[in-house]
Design brief:
It is found in: Membrane. It comes from Lynx pardinus (Iberian lynx). It is a multi-pass membrane protein. InterPro entries: L6_membrane. This is Transmembrane 4 l6 family member. By secondary structure, this protein is an all-alpha fold. It has one domain. The chain has 5 helices and 2 strands. Strands 1-2 form a two-stranded antiparallel sheet. β1 and β2 form a beta hairpin. It is elongated and about 65 Å long.
Length: 170
Amino acid sequence: MCSETGSRYTGMLLLALAKMAIVANLLLYFPNGQVLEPAKITDLVWSFHGFLGAGLLMLFPVLLAMQGTMGAMYCVVISSLGLLSGPFCDAGSGNYTYPFRNNTLEGNYLFNQPTWATCREPEHIVLWNVVLLSILLGIGAVEAVLCLSQLASGLCDIFCGTCIRKARTS
């Protein structure tokens, strides 16, 4: 298969993934479909990892595959950090905190679903964050692989020539 054909399909897939990442990132601003004060939104959401990293930076990966890879990796890192630290929520005291933030994976809330009830407001915030951040993590990982394959394909074209040039010389 020519690299141009592969690039076309990869580009279409990256565009669809970018749209999904933007939507998932936007949904993180509305926990459980509620409109909250900006101060009550999880801090890592404000890094725009789905909107910028896995979204806008994916619009030009054919020309800038390295930029796309960096954007995808940014989304993966921020999504991972968001999953590890947990949501910003009211644990019943009336004050919003990060009740699951700790430095160890031992006893992590991700592996202990009954602890999710710790967050009282917004309702179902833990599930909301886990699902959306997991989606963004997956999208970022797939985009990184696709952009790296684009980069490898481009380098092969530079050093080995494209199949179009090979067909003309045959």
